[in-house]
Amino acid sequence: MKFGVVMFPGSNCDYDTFYVLKEVIGRDTVLLWHKDHDLQGVDVVVLPGGFSYGDYLRSGAIARFSPLMQEVKTFAGAGGHVVGICNGFQILLELGLLPGAMLRNKDLKFLCQFVHIRIENGHTDFTRAGKKGQILKIPIAHFDGNYYAPDKVIKDIRRNGQVVFRYCNADGRRTDEANVNGSLDGIAGLMNTQGNVMGMMPHPERASEALLGSEDGQIIFRSLIEAIERKRRISRCP
Amino acid sequence: MKVRILVSFKDSVLDPQGQTIKNALHTLGYQSVKEARQGKVFELELEKTSEEEARKLVPEIARKVLANPIIEKYTWQIIQDE
Fold this sequence. Notes:
The complex is a heterodimer of chains A (238) and B (82).
Chain A: E1 2-7, H1 14-24, E2 28-33, E3 44-47, H2 67-77, E4 81-85, H3 87-95, E5 101-103, E6 111-119, E7 135-142, E8 146-148, H4 151-159, E9 163-168, E10 187-191, E11 197-200, H5 218-236
Chain B: E1 2-9, H1 16-27, E2 39-45, H2 51-66, E3 72-80
Antiparallel strand pairs in B: 1-2, 1-3
């Protein structure tokens, strides 16, 4: 079981993510350079937060052309697990691995604060260590996190159970106030139809130690470990 | 040849920056401003490219890179011949 964290010029959560996976969660983790072509046999690719390429053109718009991202696309197409956090989510949208796009936050402010999100689907490879309806306290830090997709796409996303997390208040209720960036349908995290690629705006790696105010972010990483170990057990059965 | 590409939000997408600009203009007394939209301008200098080739190339670049077709639209024009 091995995690890989991709580093782009301008990524700034790469080492935080690496540290949490390796030291807190305690799994083999490698850093992957965006110009390489080798995914080094990882089971999960994590696209970390930050400002890849200075957010030039649009957030995530340039990073998607990196050599390694072509490998990530192939990896995801073959069922490999990919998680995009914040800027990583934006890259997955630009790459077309997830539907929709990001707009500037509704109040045109950079938001850096703890938020609450609710697990909307507890049967995913990203949430199986938690349960549906569970409220997680995880921080956000972004300017472009106002999720948008055309009506038809939103309908499909809902019908397919692709919404993984929605913004809510501390009691788990969805309110306009709790939907801090104005995301359509309150979407904070989203997966593809196959269920192996997920993007989320909140930063689970910043909420994985009690010392930092919350350990709720661990659920995402522990879910992935469960999912991959389960897959291995099944494939080992005759 | 030089081409200019204008990328802006689709009409169906809310443009909060444009709205803020409109509100500022109203505050300044420009009440006749009914709507304001903000966009991006790109200028590309193309080498050894005919007009016919540009008509194929520029929309391709605009769709693939300069604009995100989910939220943005674009127009373009030739601003300087060879």
